[in-house]
Amino acid sequence: MRSKKQLSQVTDFDLRLLRLFKVVAESGSFSAAESALGITRSAVSLQMSDLEKRLGMRLCQRGRAGFALTDEGREVLRAGEVLLTAVENFRGEVNQINNQLRGELNIGIVNNLVTQPHMSITRALKALRERSDEIRINISMSTPGEIERGLFDGRLHVGAIPLNTPLSGLDYSLLYEEHASLYCSHEHPFFHEEHGLDDERLGAVDAVVPSYRMTEQAIELHRMLHCTATASDREGIAFLILTGSYIGYLPDHYAAKWVAKGQMKALCPERLFFDSRLAIVTRKGRRPNLLLETFLNSLPSLG
């Protein structure tokens, strides 16, 4: 399918097709992209074919073997994300000049912060929307490392992640703290024990440890456990705890719904706990962005 022709110019039509391609790639199939795009699978297929014809290359394989990006498709996706980010940056700078709130705000948030009682991010987003109805807010739930990478490469404007080991090149502002305790499920042998859970017994059962960076306090507490499983986020930790086969640390606000149902219990909460600081993160030396600054100013006073 490769063509010798070159792309002479990039039109609004091309940008729309690149945005569609990005959604298809993130969704993993044409059918999965239907709901995200609000169009039929046949329309998705037709527009993908239009983009491939425009570029003179096949971007993805589709058929009985499933959906997969070609090598060219991965390169086009990367280049397209750079282009779309540059277009959005241009729009943000023009709006900054006009002092108008319009455009996109891309936010990366670690999983399971929605149960945080402070709701600082929720209130800031509400305040932002009340200022203008020409704002598109894009939230992606991800791991701290992926959010930091998104800030560095410009895919994200702002992130909310644990403040463990700050990276140079990023600005971190304290948002709030959360308390984490060691939990087991109602199916675990320790659930009905009130006494006798010393460090030796706790270290003899299987436990789950996060695969993301932790504070020194959290690392020391996990060293006391027999960690035989890992999880990339707190939802994964909860899944393993609920099997009844593992114990693990969870933020109290996140575990509260299972505790209320009698499905989880904190083990030795008076001594087995750690506190984590959550931060709002932006890239140092970032370009002026009225949407981002308005969002940041809508947050409570940060420490």
Layout: helices, strands, pairs:
Blueprint: H1 12-27, H2 30-37, H3 41-55, E1 60-61, E2 68-69, H4 71-98, E3 103-110, H5 120-131, E4 135-142, H6 144-153, E5 158-162, E6 170-185, H7 199-202, E7 206-210, H8 216-223, E8 226-231, H9 234-242, E9 248-251, H10 252-260, E10 264-266, E11 273-283, H11 290-298
Parallel strand pairs: 3-4, 3-5, 7-8
Antiparallel strand pairs: 1-2, 5-11, 6-9, 6-10, 6-11
Family: Belongs to the LysR transcriptional regulatory family.
Keywords: DNA-binding, Transcription, Transcription regulation
Pfam families: HTH_1, LysR_substrate
Our count of helices gives: 11
Q: What is the percent of helical residues? A: 40-55%
Write down how many β-strands occur, each being a DSSP E stretch of 2 or more residues: 11
Give the CATH H-level superfamily of the largest domain.
Periplasmic binding protein-like II
Question: Which consecutive residue ranges, at least 5 long each, have pLDDT under 50?
Answer: none
Pfam family, one: LysR_substrate
Family: Belongs to the LysR transcriptional regulatory family.
Protein name: LuxR family transcriptional regulator
InterPro entries: LysR_HTH_N, LysR_subst-bd, WH-like_DNA-bd_sf, WH_DNA-bd_sf
